[in-house]
């Protein structure tokens, strides 16, 4: 497996920070591939006598992490320690915090060389600290590595208690600009007097808003009916998740969706887990279109077909807003969801989240990121130079957001277009213009190929070829939607099936002149043209096989 360029950069920065400090945390939002990043860090540091422990706080995360780790490190032995299994034999152990923190299990833990904490914003909890302290006791040279999408904890507990530095911070806008997430399209609804009441809410001592005060303002019949009407006008064809302040509020808005004949379900913490899962399964199998929740689906839930997020609660934490909106930003793998096309995610904000923080399109800055690090003046810890908020202690490092938004709004839109062009320069594989009316482009490695083209204003990514074991890969449609996301999906396909020795765009042979055999088989429109050997390879891949396979796939 080849890493995306930004993942590779994050791995290098994380390893460097671990060598300097023996601990570090890396911040990467949903879609960045946190598991791939920490699996690659482990791979780089691994030696025959090394023992690694990967902590997570839910069973499904433990199993997912193990599965993805094996994709990156197929030859490394692994084992699981959770409620059902207590297997410490693997070189890399994937474990549940709730299991290991019990004394009888903690005492069985062998000496650990590298402790990896997934969802590291939990690391300051008593259970995690107990495990960290014990691991450091039996191995004073323990290296500690955390990964998280949301470093800012709601209880204001500083990650600086555990980590002395932050190695890297991948930002949401980077993933959107690279096509790995879809862009949000945000509407902040003008609620008149309700908006004024929301802005006047008192913040609790914890720093968040009173759920009851929020619900009292939001939970009115006229406003609930308007929420559903606005949704039907703007997003009625979209799978939708609704975030509410409390269960009473959630129940009322669910009733309103039902009254207006919308297939809707409600999940909350008071429900048995089996009942919650059944409701989520109904969303997946099409029995529901809208899922309403209270603090259940903010973290760790991913269902890519979600393309509308309704915010009926408010939080003073920017990280919470990003988590909620992030539920709708994942791109669609057409192999898993063949009938879904997703260009963007609609965000309907009936609260004050975007009033407080700006909507995501406004707050992003697409300026070239500065390299290096700086110090947070509050906690005196090392953080990425581009940080606006310290990921370790939550201190805001800049307070000029509104002025910057007003000054840069038009330039930001222009830079989104520029990013689409520049994406080709950043991709690992070379994309060749096929000179087709459908604006088709094709990229090849030594074994596999990816073709991106437009069909009725929808961009498709179709891929095929052979895998690293030289077995044929069935030609498959992997994405349909926007151009950026199609290019990213095609590139990801090549990452999966090629190796670092594959024919990347930097391969010396790509810029050589075509061979006589290549020139013989080139289509007529390319004969006599000045093209490179790499371009000729892509054109022939398309003309002598890929084109027919794509046509057959799309006409089935």
Quick recap:
With 556 residues, this protein is an alpha/beta fold. 38% of the residues lie in helices and 19% in strands.
How would you describe this protein?
There is one protein chain. This protein is α/β, with parallel strands linked by helices and 556 residues long. The protein has 3 domains: 167 residues, 3-Layer(aba) Sandwich (Rossmann fold), CATH 3.40.50; 180 residues, 3-Layer(aba) Sandwich (Rossmann fold), CATH 3.40.50; 124 residues, no CATH class. Helices cover 38% and strands 19% of the residues. It has 19 helices and 20 strands. Helix 1 packs across helix 2, helix 2 packs across helix 3 and helix 10 packs across helix 11. It starts with a helix and ends with a helix.
Which helices and strands occur, and which strands form pairs?
Elements: H1 5-21, E1 23-27, H2 34-45, E2 52-56, H3 59-72, E3 78-81, E4 92-96, H4 97-100, H5 103-106, E5 114-118, H6 126-138, E6 143-148, E7 166-169, H7 172-177, E8 184-188, H8 193-199, H9 211-218, H10 221-235, E9 239-243, H11 247-259, E10 264-267, H12 273-284, E11 290-293, E12 306-311, H13 318-326, E13 345-349, H14 353-357, H15 360-363, E14 373-375, E15 382-384, H16 401-426, E16 431-433, E17 441-444, E18 448-455, E19 458-466, E20 472-481, H17 483-497, H18 516-521, H19 533-554
Parallel strand pairs: 1-6, 1-7, 2-4, 2-5, 3-4, 5-6, 8-13, 9-11, 9-12, 10-11, 12-13
Antiparallel strand pairs: 14-15, 16-17, 17-18, 18-19, 19-20
Helix pairs in contact: 1-2, 2-3, 10-11
